[in-house]
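Hey, quick one: can you model this chain's 3D structure?
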Amino acid sequence: MEMERINDNTIRVMIENNDLKERGISIMELLGNHDKIESFFYSILSEVDVDHDFSDDDQVTFQILPNKNGLELFISRLNEDEQVGDVINNLMSYAKNKQDSVDDVSEERRSQLQQSDDGEAHPMIADKQTEPVSNILTLKLPNFETIITISQLLRGVTVESDLYRYDKIFYLTLRFRNDDLTSDMLADHKAQVIEFAEESNQDMDVLREHAEIVFQDNALEEINRIF
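Sure thing. Here's the predicted structure for all 227 residues.
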């Protein structure tokens, strides 16, 4: 386990899979049961905060980012004027800066574009033969394990996916590639996943602004890789 000081208020802890195994904890538990695992987070804080910079009176937030070797745990102390959402946004920016490439196409624009085989974006053309089916679906998940089921169900299907956590509830957004699916196939895929999760009318702007982003763009792919 390694520790890095990001700034005066944030510590980054790299926890490998072996570290989790030694503590009898799995990534699934960390992502799926925030209340149960809180004591684990504080035990990590006590290990890495050797200088006792974080006092017992400090308001502390925890954010985890899974990776192929285990996970990164960000421990942040909130200032009086700082909100939890601000910390999450800062951590997401930090994670994005580590990526090799950044997709700067907005989500609104993305839903209006269709990706062709040559990698160029083209306007989406509605299917004139059948009534078009929306290629975007937002699901309210009953528990974290549900996304594992859905990721296995849609394995091999080209779909962009985001996983959010908002008010202790997980939301999964799916954006299917229309050029890969007929309207009937799209309807079938949507019907299958709705068997395991409730279709949600949660406003996407609310999720983007206020929810915690667990995985962006490739949630199903990451879940399949981890589990």
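One thing worth noting: Residues 2-97 form one domain.
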